[in-house]
Amino acid sequence: MYHRTKGGVWEMKITKTNRGFNIITFKDRYDADCSLQKSSIATEDCIWLGIDDAKPQILASKTKEGGTGWVSYHIPSDVLLTTRMHLTQKQVKKLLPHLIKFVETGNIQ
To answer: What is the pTM of this model?
Structure first.
């Protein structure tokens, strides 16, 4: 689905969701699966942007097994973790200058 090319450049895959909405999938700096997706909301144009799975972790020392470092933490199926931003065109328009500034200078202001 994804691959890193020579020189550390990340590839993006452009496809459609099962419901026919455009989606771009890619990995972030830490190889987490991310996406930019056209929202299905009918009242205004929006996108979803962010990490696809929270992958919750807990300090190993806080588990029955103990240990050090971080380990996976099971979230019950009736708990929802929101990981992606639901952005309107206005919100993206306000963010865009800061993203462009970052591309050009490495700073956000």
So the answer is: 0.80
